Structure of TRAP-type C4-dicarboxylate transport system permease small subunit:
Amino acid sequence: MNEPTGSGSMMRILKWLDEHLEEYILVILSVFTVVVIFSQVVLRYIFSSSLPWSEEIARYAFIWMIYIGVSYGVKRQKHLSVDVITMLFERKGQIIINIISNILFLIFALVITYYGINIVGRITRESAALEIPMEYVYLALVVGMILTTVRLVQNIYSNFMDLKNGRNDEGLEGETS
Protein backbone atom coordinates (compact mmCIF):
# COMPACT_ATOMS: atom_id res chain seq x y z
CA MET A 1 0.00 0.00 0.00
CA ASN A 2 1.60 3.25 -1.13
CA GLU A 3 1.38 6.37 1.03
CA PRO A 4 1.01 9.77 -0.54
CA THR A 5 4.35 11.61 -0.63
CA GLY A 6 3.13 14.38 1.67
CA SER A 7 2.01 11.89 4.30
CA GLY A 8 5.43 10.21 4.48
CA SER A 9 7.29 13.47 4.86
CA MET A 10 4.79 14.61 7.49
CA MET A 11 5.40 11.41 9.43
CA ARG A 12 9.16 11.98 9.25
CA ILE A 13 8.71 15.52 10.54
CA LEU A 14 6.49 14.32 13.40
CA LYS A 15 8.97 11.56 14.25
CA TRP A 16 11.84 14.08 14.29
CA LEU A 17 9.84 16.44 16.50
CA ASP A 18 8.98 13.58 18.83
CA GLU A 19 12.63 12.58 19.15
CA HIS A 20 14.37 15.97 19.21
CA LEU A 21 12.07 18.94 19.89
CA GLU A 22 12.98 19.59 23.52
CA GLU A 23 16.67 18.90 22.91
CA TYR A 24 16.95 21.51 20.17
CA ILE A 25 14.95 24.11 22.07
CA LEU A 26 17.13 23.58 25.15
CA VAL A 27 20.37 23.76 23.17
CA ILE A 28 19.28 26.92 21.35
CA LEU A 29 18.18 28.61 24.57
CA SER A 30 21.38 27.55 26.36
CA VAL A 31 23.64 28.86 23.59
CA PHE A 32 21.61 32.07 23.39
CA THR A 33 21.91 32.60 27.17
CA VAL A 34 25.66 31.94 27.17
CA VAL A 35 26.21 34.34 24.25
CA VAL A 36 24.16 37.11 25.90
CA ILE A 37 25.82 36.74 29.30
CA PHE A 38 29.30 36.45 27.77
CA SER A 39 28.66 39.58 25.70
CA GLN A 40 27.52 41.41 28.82
CA VAL A 41 30.67 40.42 30.71
CA VAL A 42 32.94 41.45 27.82
CA LEU A 43 31.15 44.77 27.40
CA ARG A 44 31.19 45.51 31.11
CA TYR A 45 34.79 44.61 31.91
CA ILE A 46 36.58 45.44 28.68
CA PHE A 47 34.57 48.36 27.28
CA SER A 48 33.07 49.69 30.55
CA SER A 49 29.63 49.56 28.98
CA SER A 50 26.69 47.23 29.37
CA LEU A 51 23.53 46.00 27.74
CA PRO A 52 20.51 47.14 29.76
CA TRP A 53 18.42 44.16 28.62
CA SER A 54 20.89 41.26 28.91
CA GLU A 55 20.01 40.18 32.44
CA GLU A 56 16.31 40.27 31.67
CA ILE A 57 16.52 38.26 28.43
CA ALA A 58 18.83 35.71 30.07
CA ARG A 59 16.37 35.30 32.94
CA TYR A 60 13.47 34.77 30.53
CA ALA A 61 15.44 32.26 28.46
CA PHE A 62 16.29 30.42 31.69
CA ILE A 63 12.59 30.30 32.65
CA TRP A 64 11.80 28.76 29.25
CA MET A 65 14.66 26.24 29.72
CA ILE A 66 13.22 25.17 33.07
CA TYR A 67 9.75 24.36 31.71
CA ILE A 68 11.00 22.75 28.50
CA GLY A 69 13.45 20.82 30.69
CA VAL A 70 10.56 19.34 32.68
CA SER A 71 9.19 17.87 29.47
CA TYR A 72 12.63 16.62 28.45
CA GLY A 73 13.08 14.95 31.85
CA VAL A 74 9.73 13.20 31.50
CA LYS A 75 10.56 12.15 27.95
CA ARG A 76 13.85 10.57 29.07
CA GLN A 77 12.21 9.29 32.26
CA LYS A 78 14.86 11.09 34.30
CA HIS A 79 12.49 13.25 36.33
CA LEU A 80 12.60 13.11 40.10
CA SER A 81 11.11 10.00 41.55
CA VAL A 82 11.19 8.00 44.73
CA ASP A 83 11.93 4.40 43.91
CA VAL A 84 12.05 2.95 47.43
CA ILE A 85 8.48 1.63 47.15
CA THR A 86 8.91 0.33 43.60
CA MET A 87 11.95 -1.71 44.63
CA LEU A 88 9.65 -3.80 46.83
CA PHE A 89 7.76 -5.10 43.79
CA GLU A 90 8.46 -7.30 40.82
CA ARG A 91 8.56 -5.76 37.36
CA LYS A 92 4.77 -5.86 36.83
CA GLY A 93 4.17 -4.04 40.12
CA GLN A 94 6.83 -1.46 39.21
CA ILE A 95 5.08 -0.79 35.91
CA ILE A 96 1.71 -0.37 37.67
CA ILE A 97 3.22 2.05 40.21
CA ASN A 98 4.89 3.91 37.35
CA ILE A 99 1.53 4.20 35.55
CA ILE A 100 -0.14 5.53 38.71
CA SER A 101 2.62 8.09 39.31
CA ASN A 102 2.50 9.20 35.66
CA ILE A 103 -1.29 9.58 35.84
CA LEU A 104 -0.96 11.70 39.00
CA PHE A 105 1.75 13.80 37.34
CA LEU A 106 -0.49 14.09 34.25
CA ILE A 107 -3.35 15.43 36.38
CA PHE A 108 -0.94 17.95 37.94
CA ALA A 109 0.34 19.03 34.50
CA LEU A 110 -3.20 19.47 33.19
CA VAL A 111 -4.25 21.54 36.20
CA ILE A 112 -1.14 23.73 35.88
CA THR A 113 -1.78 24.12 32.14
CA TYR A 114 -5.38 25.17 32.77
CA TYR A 115 -4.43 27.79 35.36
CA GLY A 116 -1.41 28.85 33.31
CA ILE A 117 -3.61 29.61 30.30
CA ASN A 118 -5.90 31.60 32.61
CA ILE A 119 -2.95 33.63 33.93
CA VAL A 120 -1.44 34.23 30.47
CA GLY A 121 -4.80 35.56 29.30
CA ARG A 122 -4.89 38.13 32.11
CA ILE A 123 -1.32 39.49 31.87
CA THR A 124 -1.28 42.99 30.45
CA ARG A 125 2.09 44.44 31.39
CA GLU A 126 5.41 44.56 29.56
CA SER A 127 8.91 43.71 30.73
CA ALA A 128 10.99 46.58 32.06
CA ALA A 129 14.05 46.59 29.80
CA LEU A 130 12.87 44.77 26.68
CA GLU A 131 9.31 46.08 26.76
CA ILE A 132 8.00 42.76 25.45
CA PRO A 133 4.58 41.51 26.58
CA MET A 134 5.00 39.41 29.73
CA GLU A 135 2.57 36.87 28.26
CA TYR A 136 5.55 35.48 26.32
CA VAL A 137 7.40 34.78 29.55
CA TYR A 138 4.39 33.24 31.29
CA LEU A 139 3.65 31.19 28.18
CA ALA A 140 6.73 29.09 29.04
CA LEU A 141 4.72 27.42 31.79
CA VAL A 142 1.87 26.56 29.44
CA VAL A 143 4.09 25.30 26.61
CA GLY A 144 6.26 23.30 29.01
CA MET A 145 3.27 21.67 30.68
CA ILE A 146 1.60 20.88 27.35
CA LEU A 147 4.81 19.17 26.18
CA THR A 148 5.02 17.41 29.56
CA THR A 149 1.42 16.22 29.13
CA VAL A 150 2.27 14.77 25.71
CA ARG A 151 5.33 12.99 27.13
CA LEU A 152 3.38 11.63 30.10
CA VAL A 153 0.67 10.24 27.80
CA GLN A 154 3.43 8.59 25.73
CA ASN A 155 4.96 7.08 28.89
CA ILE A 156 1.61 5.83 30.15
CA TYR A 157 0.85 4.26 26.76
CA SER A 158 4.29 2.63 26.71
CA ASN A 159 3.76 1.26 30.23
CA PHE A 160 0.37 -0.16 29.28
CA MET A 161 1.96 -1.83 26.24
CA ASP A 162 4.67 -3.29 28.51
CA LEU A 163 1.96 -4.70 30.79
CA LYS A 164 -0.06 -6.03 27.87
CA ASN A 165 2.94 -7.67 26.22
CA GLY A 166 4.32 -8.95 29.51
CA ARG A 167 7.73 -7.29 29.12
CA ASN A 168 9.76 -8.02 32.19
CA ASP A 169 13.28 -7.41 30.95
CA GLU A 170 13.43 -3.60 30.73
CA GLY A 171 14.32 -1.34 33.65
CA LEU A 172 12.30 1.64 34.82
CA GLU A 173 13.45 5.24 35.15
CA GLY A 174 17.00 5.35 36.44
CA GLU A 175 17.70 1.63 36.12
CA THR A 176 18.90 1.54 32.52
CA SER A 177 22.44 2.56 31.67
In short: Helices lie at 5-46, 54-75, 91-122, 135-165. Confidence is low (pLDDT under 50) at residues 170-177.
